[in-house]
């Protein structure tokens, strides 16, 4: 058995290139993928900086990476869904087929989920990665590998918009124009929304929202006068048009509050962002406006397939998210660069390779 190079988080703030055994295809329904591109996600940075996210604590060296694409190089005897040579986006979380949640149709909520680069499960920043055939999704060869890697966050946006029930002519408010907010807005547009307002504090990202991610309106909430609330500024920008859907993509308490206050009676608020464990919310508005608040976690059946379709049909331009690329041999530098919070014009960094 030969070795491969992996990008390993040894402990917080300590990444190393280490050797790992190349995994074998041992199950007839598994495939081996040569990794071609991997996006860096906010959760990777949390593990790198803090060594934990909530209950997930890095206690032993862990291979990083969960937003990856690649080429199928080997298939098990029973595989029918992909072939050697296919380009694929890897769905990084594999649930147990025995859990109640999986059987109830919510495999994303399976308590036995094994999710790449979430301790103790190793991630995809390696040369070869094995996965069940139904967790690699074939993408057309016309889609670049770096774009295919970002089908992972796009699937989150597909899931969020399905939960929101976004439909033709809706007015959708997106709180936060980070990578997740941007893809949420563009998916809302492709689901039929006609008015899409983004709120953020970063002009670079708001301009990207306008150029490539469906924004009809943008609002920099940092620039408001001290006597103007974010919800009032939103309502005035939209001439009091009713907001059907809010997709909260910051996890920041002021954004949750403003989003709930801006949402029209009967509307749906989807909690995509993850922030503090508890915050206060305007309860009377929720009850008297019959607001629907929905949690949202990763993606479930059909979401990856729909995300691939959106990219294949040219409805989402994932390349416009990418503000930096690094070679695999510079992967550690790519993570170190994420720690520099002074960089304003950063959305998504993608690691290309291994060469
Ligand atoms: N539910 C899920 O399955 C899921 C999956 C991936 C990410 N997330 C969460 O979604 C959120 C967004 O992810 P991301 O990768 O785009 O994160 P990000 O940090 O890159 O983007 C967040 C954006 O919100 C903006 N923002 C923060 N505070 C603000 C404020 N007070 N007012 C206005 N704008 C503000 C920031 O400027 C930034 O552009 C994060 O909380 C992340 O943890 C959830
Ligand atoms: Zn991610």
TrEMBL record:
Keywords carried by this UniProt record: Metal-binding, NAD, Oxidoreductase, Zinc
Domain Enoyl reductase (ER): 13-351
Gene3D superfamilies per record: Medium-chain alcohol dehydrogenases, catalytic domain, NAD(P)-binding Rossmann-like Domain
Cofactor requirement: Zn(2+)
Taxon lineage: Eukaryota, Fungi, Dikarya, Ascomycota, Saccharomycotina
PANTHER family reported for this sequence: SORBITOL DEHYDROGENASE (PTHR43161:SF9)
Listed name of the protein: Similar to Saccharomyces cerevisiae YJR159W SOR1 Sorbitol dehydrogenase
Family from the record: Belongs to the zinc-containing alcohol dehydrogenase family.
């Amino acid at each position: 058995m030969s070795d491969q190079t992996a990008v390993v988080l040894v402990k917080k703030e300590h990444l190393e290139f280490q050797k790992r055994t190349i995994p074998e295809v041992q199950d007839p329904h598994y495939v081996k993928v040569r990794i071609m591109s991997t996006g860096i996600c906010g959760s990777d940075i949390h593990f790198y900086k803090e060594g934990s996210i909530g209950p997930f604590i890095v206690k032993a060296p862990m291979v990083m990476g969960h937003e990856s694409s690649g080429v199928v190089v080997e298939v098990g005897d029973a595989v029918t869904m992909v072939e050697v040579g296919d380009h694929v986006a890897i769905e990084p979380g594999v649930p147990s087929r025995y859990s109640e949640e999986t059987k109830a149709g919510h495999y994303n909520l399976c308590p036995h989920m094994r999710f790449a680069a979430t301790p103790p499960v190793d991630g995809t920043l390696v040369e070869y990665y094995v996965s069940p055939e139904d967790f690699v999704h074939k993408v057309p060869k016309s889609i670049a590998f770096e774009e295919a890697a970002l089908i992972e966050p796009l699937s989150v946006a597909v899931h969020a918009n399905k939960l929101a029930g976004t439909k033709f002519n809706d007015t959708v408010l997106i709180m936060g124009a980070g990578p997740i907010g941007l893809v949420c807005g563009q998916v809302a547009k492709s689901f039929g929304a006609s008015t899409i307002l983004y709120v953020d504090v970063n002009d670079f990202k708001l301009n990207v929202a306008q150029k490539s991610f469906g924004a009809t309106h943008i609002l920099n909430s940092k620039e408001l006068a001290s006597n103007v609330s974010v919800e009032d500024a939103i309502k005035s920008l939209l001439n009091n048009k009713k907001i059907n859907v809010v997709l909260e993509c910051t996890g920041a308490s002021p954004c949750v509050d403003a989003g709930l206050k801006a949402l029209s009676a009967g509307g749906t608020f989807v909690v995509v962002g993850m922030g503090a464990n508890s915050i206060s919310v305007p309860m009377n508005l929720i009850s008297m406006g019959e607001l629907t608040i929905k949690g949202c976690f990763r993606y479930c059946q059909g979401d990856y397939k729909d995300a691939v379709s959106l990219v294949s049909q040219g409805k989402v331009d994932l390349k416009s998210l990418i503000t930096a690329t690094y070679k695999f041999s510079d992967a550690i530098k790519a993570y170190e660069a994420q720690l520099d919070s002074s960089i304003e014009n950063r959305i998504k960094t993608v690691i290309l390779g291994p060469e």
